[in-house]
């Protein structure tokens, strides 16, 4: 009798395990069904262009004619020897170093302020800060050309306030153009980082702040001993996103300065566009532009790997 009961129980477990296995495999199949459209679009518009770029980078080809000459690594060597590429390379990192700290710090301060319970019109302020994000970047760039021009609203206001003696050509002066582009980029993308930080703040339990208040901790101490440490994981992700996005900057710079004046705001994206799709440098050179893009993409990947290693070491040190 006992053996029969054991057999029945074993058979029951086996049936349950088989049912769970079938359910799990069925769920996995449905996951792939829903993922397929995204994977297909990624393969067509991201995967294939990346693979094709490696092939084009080995060709001496304008992209307009059927004849293409295989040149191996010559395009990469020419890119490495071009001082204009290194100028654009330097400007890309200058733009990154000028925008990322403000994106992170200013957005964090605003997020902490807007996250305070009982703050009136908090949603309204969030909407105003996020509004530039949903505005088309090229349209923002065109409008800013008029606002920051020699006879624009910025110069007019500063002259009336007595802060300037004569107008400044903010976008046409090599000394001021990069500063102006950075300032507008910070204003344009501040709302995205605000949302990121607000999401991180909402994930922190209120019990921690209440316990700190019971112990007599001030607002500053709660910020540095509770908020900041708990925001570090999401902060590293926000940092990586900002670094990558700032190094890919194109549309704002293209519409405002086109890389000028005298290549003062020329970044790698505008450099690649100039060689691949325009006749500014003669006949387009799609192979050369592909090599320049891959050269810079490898640099961004190395930065991401270094940041990931540093993040893991920081976490490992904390665990110890």
Automatic annotation (TrEMBL):
Domain of life per record: Bacteria
Entry-linked Pfam families: BPD_transp_1 (PF00528)
Subcellular location: Cell membrane
TM helices/strands, residue ranges: 28-57, 95-115, 127-149, 176-199, 223-244, 288-310
Main location: membrane
Membrane topology, as annotated: Multi-pass membrane protein
GO BP: transmembrane transport
Span of domain ABC transmembrane type-1: 89-307
GO cellular component terms listed in the entry, alphabetical order: plasma membrane
Keywords: Cell membrane, Membrane, Transmembrane, Transmembrane helix, Transport
Similarity comment text for this entry: Belongs to the binding-protein-dependent transport system permease family.
Protein name, as recorded: Sugar ABC transporter permease
Organism: Neobacillus citreus
UniProt lineage: Bacteria, Bacillati, Bacillota, Bacilli, Bacillales
